[in-house]
Amino acid sequence: MNDFSDIESKLRKLRPVQPSADLMTRLERALAEETATPTAGVLPRERRFHFNWLSLGLGLAAATALVLFAFLRLEGPVQKRSSLAAITPAPAFSTNSNAQFVPAGLTQVVYRTRDEGLHFPNNSGQPMRRVRSHTSETLRWRNPTTGASLRISYPSEEVSLVPVTGQ
Amino acid sequence: MENVATDENWKTCFSQLAPGLLLFARQWARSSADAEDIVQEAFVRFWRKQHDIANRGLLYATVRSIALDFLRRDSRRARRESTAVSETDQMVQPMFEVEDESQRALVAALDLLPNEQREVLVMKIWNELTFAEIASALEISQNTAASRYRYALAALKKNLPSV
Asked: Which are the contacts of B38, defined by CB distance < 8 A and separation ≥ 6?
């Protein structure tokens, strides 16, 4: 590079022309504005016009995509509705209720008892008194997190044989 | 160097860079007014994107991109370019404040350089960019940038026997 030191020195002595006085003013105004970049009017404005076409094209493409998407969504639920109706109740009821409810108690109410006399079951010689009881049993579950309770009541009939002891 | 976007005294930054930027833009512009418009648009774009002013490779790449875009989109200028560029770039000239005949001869020799050599020379001599920055701005390798620089100096030396 030493071979070129002389010519490099001469080149550095050449001074580029200074910018015009109003360039700083125009630049200051352009920096202050948010959208427009004013120039001396020499730059071709066709560029912005082209950019608008590009934006318009992109906008139309986006709008078309949105319309297609909305159309597909309107068509879709008709097919899905039957399958959803068939499968949603079972897991929603069984999994949630059974998994979270815990047994809270059992109540057995005997509302009628009837003595049906002496019997000799299986031809045995030992007499036994047969007593028939009508009860109502209530099972209760409770969800500790939500406080909800579930109660199931059903009637029951119980027959008991009581040995008769001599007195 | 500070970031342009946070530098309140951006005028100082621009004043230091403007002559070299204008000279760089003049390679594609037919007049100083065109070059000023290119530099203004490039600087505003660079400033608004809050690029680091120390990233001179990106700044000059922005100027170059806008200048080439300016040439491509103006059909009238493109037509002139198709004829003028082929005529050894007589219309595309750097602009200097010539003081004597030796400098005038030097400017005339500069005008004879191929575009790719002259733009490297302008970035190196009057904008003091490193070869790495020049390579970044022109999207070429550093070796290519250095080679173009040497070829430009050799061509100038050949065309100026007194040097």
From this structure: A43, B25, B28, B29, B63, B66, B67, B70
